[in-house]
Amino acid sequence: MSIIDDVEALKRMELFAKVEPAKLKLMAFAAERTQFRKGEEMVHQGDPADAAYIILEGRADVLVETPTGNLKVAEVGRDAFVGEIGILCDVPRTATVVATEDLTTLKITKDLFFRMVTDFPTISIEVMRVLAQRLEHANELLAATRH
Amino acid sequence: MSVRGAGMEHNLFRYIWRNSWRDQSVILAIVAVSYIFYFISLDLPKQIVNKAIQGEAFAAGNTTAKFLDLSIGPIESIGLPELTLLPGFDLDRISYLVALCFSFLFFVILNGWVKQIVNTEKGRLGERMLRRLRYELYDRVLRFPLSHFRKVKQAEIATMIKDEVEPLGGFIGDAYVTPAFLGGQALTALVFIMLQSVWLGLISVVVLAVQLVVIPILRRRILELGRQRQLTARQLAGRIAENVDGAVEIHANDTSNYERADIVNRLEKIFLIRFELYQRKYFVKYINNMLSQVTPFLFYLIGGYLALTGRFDVGSLVAVIAAYSNLPSPIKELIDWQQQSQDVQIKYEQVIEQFTPDGMMPPELQQPTDQVPAAPAGGFSAQSVAYYDEGGARLLDNAALEVGGRDHLAIVGFNGSGKEVLGLILARLTWPTTGTLRWGNADMATLPEGAIGRHISYVADETYLFPLSILDNVVYGLKHRPIAPAHYEGRALMHYQRRITEARRTANPTLDIYAQWIDFGAAGVDDLAGLKRRIIDLLPAVELDDDVYQFGLRGRIDPDEQPDVAARFLEARAAIHRRLEEPGMSHLVEHFDPNRYNRNMTVAENLLFGTPRGPVFDLAALRDNKVLANVIDAVGLKPALMAMGAKIGETMVELFADLPPGHPFFEQFSFVSADDLPLVQQLLNRVQRSGLENAAPADQQRLVAITFPYIESRHRLGLIDAELEARLLAGRRSFAETLPDEYQDYIEFFDPDRYNAAATVQDNMLFGRLVYGQAQAAQRIHRLLLDVVTEIGLKSEVLAVGLEHGVGTGGRRLTQAQRQKVALVRALVRRPRILILNNALAPLESAAQTRLVKALRQEMKDRCLILIADNAALCSIMDRVAVMRDGRVIEQGPLDRLARPGTALSDLGIGLQMAAS
Lengths: 147, 917
Fold this sequence. Notes:
The complex is a heterodimer. Chain A has helices at 3-11, 21-30, 84-89, 110-119, 121-146; strands spanning 32-36, 41-43, 51-57, 60-66, 69-76, 81-82, 96-99, 103-109. Chain A is of the alpha+beta class. Chain A has a single domain, classed as Jelly Rolls (Sandwich), CATH 2.60.120. In chain A, strand 4 and strand 5 form a beta hairpin. Chain A is globular and about 45 Å long. Chain B is extended and about 125 Å long. In chain B, 57% of the residues lie in helices and 9% in strands. Chain B is of the alpha/beta class. In chain B, strands 10-15-16-7-17-18 form a six-stranded mixed beta sheet, sandwiched between helices. In chain B, strands 6-5-8-9 form a four-stranded antiparallel beta sheet, covered by helices on one side. At the A-B interface, helix 1, helix 2 and strand 1 of A face helix 21 and helix 22 of B.
């Protein structure tokens, strides 16, 4: 598996879909392939957020701590972007993610992410656009629940 | 107070005479003998001209003359008849001339030889005196009162001992000999001239008198300038040292330009002083030369007149002028000597002044003793102890303190209570101004340093570590005196004896640095191995074991010196490999397998397959390494690597071309620096035009070198397939097989069955690379290493390697907390009767302070521990407490009695805390 696969994976991300391939290649090159074994934690709730992960292969559970124990709130798999909220908003991890199979991920450190955003304004515009869409989506959901 | 102003001789000449009169006398005697030869060598030219050339000896028509007829007398007044010592030979005129000329040559040579002996003797005498003086000054530094070190700058002290006394050494040999030698020479010449002609003699005397009076007057200002030059230069050295010490402050406060201005100002002053000195020196030289030249002018004029009028023979005139030509140089040198003597006298005084502070420790307190001085029984008792600092501020005022020999006492106090000074006084690092401090029955003021340094350990809040290993710094506390002499045989014994004789001659102590100094007995062990074990046992108490373990993992050992230890690390290597085969671990490390390409190592590392020693096979130098280039060529790797290099180059240009130079990505991820990127672009263009095979040899080399830092599993460009791997392996084998002998020392190959001396302990045990991109790999492997090391009982070996870790200049390779812990180990290892911690734990965080105090109390069980602490809360874990305020001990007693409301201790907030807990 080479860097070309990583570029493809980045392209499939909503945030990076419209970024020029050359930039994505640089990002892929600077990012680190990170493997997790089944049962290992990718992120732990409450820890400071230092990186986001793109799952290239494998599956993981998203767990939230409750007084009665961990509650599984979602399951993620190939092409999921894990932990991006943490690095964007600079908040501690809001959930714990545990690998349920052997995982291959692309680790994008906070530092790398912000470097890319500052150096290439096209990326920051994409990020804004995607976040705005998410906000609108959330608003719609909110409006729907009120009615 | 037992202190001594301990003067040094202030007069340089008296100092020299007192310490070298024997040597000086011998030289003076040789000089005295040399005058005879000198006089003869002056007289011979006259004889050659008058007797041989002008034929006086053959005046009466004789065809022969007597040569070498030595006779004395007759002296009628004492009735001595003529004694013929040698009857002489009869020689004809030519032979007579030849004989006289050869006699002249003989005496010239003899004269020169004697001169050379005198110079050698002078040199040795000077060097001996310099050695004596330097030692004496250094000895004084070791006896300075500690307060004096606050006033002096280390660079200035060093400059004085090293540079400023240096000219003294050159001068000391000349101090007596030169005036004697040159004065005698001048006098001989003068007497000779006088004998030839009283008038010419008188002329010389008058001119010389003028020289001897005028020149020194002119030189007074020069001496003053010389003094200033010395002072300003010393201060410059001091300032530069300050700048080095205060480098952080200079940057943090942006005062570099202020410092520049200061130095510029000083340099200007030095320049002005030196230039004026220069001008005056040459002016004096000019006057001096002129006066010297006036005399021959008078000789020619008056002597010529006398000769012409027949009142003086030509031979005598030639001899007088020859004699005079010998006169100015001794006179000039004599005048120089006089100036130099004044100059060095001033230098000497200036240096001595700096080395005679008040309150120097009497030398007998530091006398090395053969037996360990016994420690007095019991604890401390201080009665009305007062201490005033240099400014007269009263830091201790009538302090009274009782400490039992087994007490664990905390001394706490309010700000400015004087507790730190009390700590210094208890360790006798400072003497009280008034009052007495007793240790058992002994007066602390008269106890030898041997007793205090061996039985009391003292640690302050800042510890200076010598730039050695941790072990050496700990062992330092055990080197009080030579325990066993070094063993010498044959030549070495001869050298040693010469060393001792020479040391005695220069009043240096005969302490031998090569003797066995470590007092194992004091640490309760038999040998170095035992001492290491004891130190390792002490590490957990001061919480230094983890740090030393880390140092050990990064340390190196020499398997030839420690074959057993190396074998055990190999054992660990095998054990770790077994553990790594367990499921869930195997993916973390890729081993150094000679028969497999390691995808977590660079291309270059895969080819070399060893640890470089020195820069020859360093990655940075590999591009131009012929040996590796030949191997790559020989196994046919070159085309593949060039193609790979071109691909990497293209990718780099593609990825990084848009980034501004200096972007952090270059450093983090790129194979090429931002500056080199255009060069790579040009390289690729050139290669594209010419094709890979036809590229210039230098370009081919560059392309190959681009691949060297490439790591397949990290960079993931997918460039190394199975076929290339096989070829690289062939290259690896070929490199190892064909490595020329002269390169064998520059690399140590990875061999699964051998300990690699060039690699760290950790790399030797792991014998592989961490696999890239495995979450938590580093932590897990670290834990695995620790587990294995502990399991097979290797931890103390790793710690022993860690003890060899160099601490750097002033211990700066350690953190302040680590330095303190090393100091604590040093304090504990000699099992002191009393341990004084003068805020020693302050650099540690509060919880660690508490843990350490508990551990130290355990170590010092049944012995005395005095803990002086700003952190007053620490007294809650001690037995007894003394509270200080305004230089007095206002409360002392058991903790439970003081830890209640209304006491001074409770004012410090301690009693209340205790009550609450």
